[in-house]
Amino acid sequence: MAQTMLHFVFTASGSGCLVQALRKAGRNDQVITTFDDLSFGPIDPGDSSSRVKWVESELGWTGWNDGASSSERLWDEARFPDNRKVAWLTRRSAMEYAGFLNWLWRLGDADCEVVDLTDVRISYPAEHGPPQSPGLAMSLGLLHPATIKNNGLWDLAEPLPKTARARYRDRWRQLRSENAPLRVIDGDQLVSAPISFFDPVLLSHATDTWRKVARIIGEALASQMDDCLFQTGDIFLPARVNALVESGRLEIRGKSALEMHLSEVRLPNAQS
Q1: pLDDT tens-digit profile of 213-270?
Q2: Is beta strand 121-122 parallel, antiparallel or unpaired with respect to 135-136?
Q3: Domain map (residue ranges) of the chain
C-alpha cells in the first residue's frame, strides 16, 4: 500500500496555495504548516514561550503565542513513521529556509524528500498574449494553485541525500550556536545578522517629508525582489521603524509604526 504523502510547508500562504492545488488535482495529501517566522528571534532555545517573549519585547507584537504554539504540531507530525514526508524548500526566502532547517533538525534521521524551488523555473500558458519566458518559482506562496497543479511541482520531490542533510544540519547547528536576532540569505546560505540589518534600507526610503509607514515598508520589501530574495516581511520591519524613531533617526506622526497605514515618518527636520 502506498504511503500517504505528508507535505511540510513553512509559510501560511504557501500552505494555502498548495492545498488548493492538490484539491484541484483530486489529491487528498495532507499539508502541515508553521505560522512562526524563524528568520528572527531566538532559536536556542527555540521554544514557543521564549520566542513569544522576544517578539513582544523586541518587536512590540502581542498574540504571537498563537502562531508559535501551533507550530509545535509541525514537529510532532514530522515524526509520523507511516507517512511519506515531503518538505517544500526555497533558499530564496529566509523564513522558509529557516523553517526547513529547523524542521530537518528536529526530524532526526527519519527519511524525507524535498521539493526544492530555489532554481525551478515555471512555465505559464499564453492565455492572454504571447508566451512568457519561464520565471523563477522563488516561493510556493507566490504561485497560483493552478500553476502549481499544471506544473506538477509535487513530482519534483526527491529523497534528501545524506550529504545534503548533514550540510543543512551543520548550518542550523551553527546558527543555533550564534542565536542572533536575525537570519538572512547571503548567496546560497542562511547566515546570522544583527537586529539593525535592515535599518539602512528603511532609511533609504525615508525622505524629509512625511510618508506613510506602509509605503516605506512596501518599498523596502520590493527592493528585495531585485535580488530575487525574500529576506524579511512586514512583521519585522515596522518594529525597526519604531526603533529608528526611538533613536532619533526618524520622526513619527502617529501612535506607532506597527499601525502602518495610520502613521507617517520622515527624516529629522531641523527646521521644524
Answers
A1: 999 999 999 998 888 999 998 999 999 999 999 999 999 999 999 999 999 999 997 5
A2: antiparallel
A3: 4-173, 196-266
- pTM score of the predicted model: 0.91
Decide: 44 and 221 in contact? Cβ < 8 Å.
no
> Tens digit of pLDDT for each residue in 17-69?
999 999 999 999 999 998 899 999 999 988 888 999 999 999 999 877 665 55
Per CATH, domain 196-266 is 1.10.10: yes
CA 57 to chain centre: 21
CA 187 vs. chain centroid, Å, equals 16
Residue in the block written with cell 527624516: 267
Cα R_g (the chain), whole angstroms = 20
* Residue 217 burial class via C-beta count within 10 angstroms: exposed 0-12, middle 13-18, buried 19 and up: buried
Q: Which one, of 6, 15, 118, 17, lies nearest residue 67 by Cα?
A: 15
Dist. CA 167–CA 188, nearest whole Å: 12
Amino acid letter, residue 55: V
Peptide bond into 268 cis (omega under 30): no
Q: How many CB atoms lie within 10 A of CB 165?
A: 16
Mean pLDDT value across residues 190-194? 98
> Are 88 and 18 contacting, i.e. CB atoms less than 8 angstroms apart?
yes
CA 219, chain centre distance (Å)? 18
